[in-house]
């Protein structure tokens, strides 16, 4: 066994013969470089619908949870128009009307409607019966 002098902070490089290859690696063949494939030409696909048009709408009215929302939207080429509304947690209905086109971009107008509080008739005032005095 050889003795190697080491200075502080310096790690000597070990000779390659000091670390022989494991016997298990010798059983596998050497890797072979795969041939490089020719570059594939990328073609731009045109959309089948060059002038998109659609229209949709939906509403949700859930009496159990009080969830109430709606949306409607139409598209005619590059112009999109629509609106949606929902009840916020504080009871206010928020309605957003929007419009988008390639020239002006997306524009929206938000409206908040204060909820109408229904007057609940007050319960009739009931006077408590007088407490009888107990004699001790």
Keywords:
136 residues; 5 strands; mainly beta; five-stranded antiparallel sheet; single chain
Describe the structure.
It is a single chain. The protein is an all-beta fold. It has a domain of 61 residues. Helix content is 3%, strand content 35%. A five-stranded antiparallel β-sheet has the order 1-2-3-4-5, with no helix packed on it. The longest helix is centred in the first third of the chain and has 4 residues. The chain is elongated. The N and C termini lie far apart (111 Å). The mean pLDDT is 78.
The number of helical segments is 1
The global form is elongated
Arithmetic mean pLDDT: 78
Distance between the termini: 111 Å
Tell me the β content.
25-35%
Major beta sheet summary: 5 strands, antiparallel
Helix/strand order, N-terminal first: HEEEEE
Give the low-confidence spans. none
- The spatial strand order of the largest sheet comes to 1-2-3-4-5
Q: Structural class, judged by helices and strands?
A: mainly beta
Compute the number of strand runs.
5
**Rg (C-alpha, Å):** 40 Å
């Amino acid at each position: 066994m050889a003795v190697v002098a080491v200075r502080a902070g310096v790690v000597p490089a070990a000779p390659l013969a000091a670390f022989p290859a494991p016997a298990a690696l010798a059983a596998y063949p050497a890797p072979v470089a795969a041939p490089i494939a020719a570059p594939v030409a990328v073609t731009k696909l045109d959309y089948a619908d060059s002038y998109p048009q659609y229209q949709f709408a939906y509403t949700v009215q859930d009496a159990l949870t009080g969830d109430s929302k709606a949306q409607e939207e139409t598209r005619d080429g590059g112009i999109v128009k629509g609106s949606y509304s929902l009840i916020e947690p504080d009871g206010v209905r928020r309605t957003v009307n929007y419009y988008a086109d390639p020239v002006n971009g997306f524009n929206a107008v938000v409206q908040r409607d204060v909820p109408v509080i229904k007057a609940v008739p007050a319960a009739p005032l009931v006077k408590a019966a007088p407490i009888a005095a107990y004699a001790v």
